[in-house]
């Protein structure tokens, strides 16, 4: 049984290797309690920690892994029993969210318009990722995908820039569908990724088919739903640091903190950092019912998300 668990915990094992010696020791000590644990996630993390330090367990070959930030908790009980629907799972942020959730052993249902595309880029079912096909513009697809989920992270966005209705369909109708289905299913938490500038009708991005105006309508649908929410509005998204530039630490402002003057200058942020913020928002009480604008700043102090959310 241990061998099966160890195999299915490939990513956790890698994380554990990175854990400090003291963390590893306490995890190994916890192994006898394993059979009493109801949470599969705990079991996976504990066993993988033991495996990483045991000479008679074969070393795992490193699977591809998204870079994990120091702030990700290794075994946070607040994620027990959580099953997350990730909408936009094949997008830049969505993919990073799925990978980070899977790396922590959290159950994920990844919603994508193309199961084939999703399967080619997301962790396998053995790492707790279930892929479902669906279009957020169709309520029936979304309602089906939502079944059994307790939380939702929405990282969809219009991908066809030539489609004048893309933002209306995805950011407005799509998000309305997701929120309605979440309400119907009794989902506890919805984290929605939109954008800096959403409160400002004059923000230049609106020249692109009114994209921010539709995102704002999607936000309002969530805020009116009564479901606990966190709206995460990132600055310019990057897949990797710009050549020769240092990536700063995450900083968070409240609604309308960044944008055109007199607001603060909107900066940029890695998609993996946005994903990390979304995963943290699922369980951080300080993120409850908040709109947060998120960028990075070189020289900013390296704060955890509890402090960051509390500052808004
Ligand atoms: N680019 C930036 O600098 C920037 C800055 C701030 C905020 N944002 C916003 O941040 C969010 C995440 O950005 P990103 O760059 O990670 O997004 P992205 O890579 O463009 O991915 C968007 C995702 O949405 C999915 N999607 C689109 N329409 C859908 C539909 N009708 N049904 C189901 N899925 C649908 C796409 O799936 P397919 O694979 O099927 O197309 C894709 O997985 C977006 O809302 C974006 O507008 C972007």
UniProtKB/TrEMBL annotation:
Domain of life: Eukaryota
NAD(P)-binding domain sequence ranges: 88-285
InterPro entries to which the protein is assigned, alphabetical: NAD(P)-bd_dom (IPR016040), NAD(P)-bd_dom_sf (IPR036291)
CDD domains assigned: SDR_a5
PANTHER family: FLAVIN REDUCTASE-RELATED (PTHR15020), NAD(P)-BINDING DOMAIN-CONTAINING PROTEIN (PTHR15020:SF42)
Protein name: NAD(P)-binding domain-containing protein
